[in-house]
Structures are given as structure tokens and as C-alpha cells.
Amino acid sequence: MSQSESGNVIPSNETTRRTFLQQTSATLLAGSILQPLAGFAGEEKNSGKQARIKKAVKYQMITEKIPVMDKFKMLKDLGFDGTEIHYRTKVDPKEVRKAIDATGVQVHGFLNSSRDELKDSIDQAKYYGGTSVLVVAGRVDQDNPYDVVYKQQQAKLRKHLPYAEKQGIKLLVENVWNNFLLSPLEMARFIDELESPAAGVYFDVGNVVRFGWPDQWIRILGPRIVKLDIKEYSRAKQKDEGLWKGFQVEITEGDCNWPEVRQALMDIGFTQGWATAEVKGGDRQRLQDISERMDRALDLA
User: What are the Xylose isomerase-like TIM barrel domain coordinates in residue numbering (predicted)?
Assistant: First the structure.
């Protein structure tokens, strides 16, 4: 990447590609806004069977002190299809594989967070039979300028995308509060410039509510969205109690307009992808409540 005279970040490849992107990016993005995207936005096309979004929780949300196998059995009993494991989670991979095989509950992805070295995470996702690695793309602050972070994060992803493609794993960038990729238009451009079928978006519904509307992001990002994080946000709590307090509200009790979210997901064809809760976990009773709330939010029951 390089910087134009106006200060905008532009690709540093050959002139013809740069010119092509400049001429077509506005048209492509406008198309994603002005008309619903037809077809599939998740991982599998609808083959005529009843379409259903698959439901999961982050593995670290399971707080009961029980064996790995019993945790997976509990998830199955509660209606969850899968889980995701964070790179910091202390768990025996062999025990996880046994639990997957015994219960059918999948580890659909691996959480890399903001680590620069992605190969290990790709290998972990592959070992568990997952399909993705969640990536947090850097952070912009006083010491890390926006344009520099943009170039650095694309370079990191480009380094690992060929290996991810070979392994059949997608590298999915999440929208988080890192002062970066602050609009769906920019996030779409960031992903498109990577020019890889293994690059996509892990869209966090709740993270947008503070400054935007999730259904708008969903329609603009369209088929770039491969998976969803599910949580809530309350603008009233943000105003009265503080910025981060906005997340301290249960799914379906905040300011996320779930009917609009469901409609937007239908509009882009997201009917069989993964939706993973990212909220405060707990014991069996707590996870049961999360399962039921996800059913209501996404109309899965």
C-alpha cells in the first residue's frame, strides 16, 4: 500500500489495478447499498433443505467445572450446534476432538484476536474441523496512525491468506472498538482489496449499536459477512452509566432492532451461517437462558 497526494490510502500494485479500483469501487459499494444482495452470504448454499442459522457460544463462557466431554454434551442438550475456542483457552485438543466426534457439537472457529502470527491459529481451526479464524485488525491510537495500521493489517492478512486458502480456512475480520474500519463502506473496501476468497467479515451485531445500525452494516457488507457475534448494547446505559456499561444488558433487551437484523440477514442470503453468543457466560442455567434469547433474537425456535 502507498499514500496518495490527498492522503488517502491506495493500493501500491501496478497502475492499471489502482486505476481499476478507483473507477469501480464506488460503483461496487453503491450496488451493495442500493439493492439487496441475492444468494449466499455464509458458508454453505441452501440446497433446498430447511435453512437454519447455527447457534454457538464461546467456549470460555462455559464456567461449570466439568470435563470437556460433559461440556460438549451440555451444549448439545441446550440446543447449541457449536462453540469457538480462544487461543488463550487452556484445553486439551485431543479431549476436544473426542468430544466433537462423540456429540456432533462443532468447534466451528478459532479465536486469534490481534496476534500477528496467524499460522498456528489456522492450524488449530483445521485440527478441530472448523472453518474460520477470527482476526482483530490492529488498533488506531496516537502512536499508531490510521493509514499505517491500514497498510500493516492488510500486509499481515496477505501474508497468511494463501496458507488459509490451502487449508480451507477463512480469515474473518471482526468489527471491534479499535478506532479502525469505522464504517461498513471502508470495511468492505478493506476486505475487497485483499482479493482472496479466504478473506471475510466476522460481524459483531452489538458492537455497532453505539454509533450505527446493524441492519445497515449487514446490507452494505453483504456476502463478505461469513459469521456473526451476538450480543446487545443499550444507549441508555451508555448515557447514564458510561460507555462500556452499554454492553451490560441481556440479548433482546437493548437497542438492537432484531426484526430489522433478521430482515437484513434474509436480504443478503445469510440463512445457514454461524451465530455465536459473546456475552457473560455461566452455568447450565445461564447458558440455557442465552440459548433461548438467541432463539428469540434470530427467530430460531
Answer: 73-289
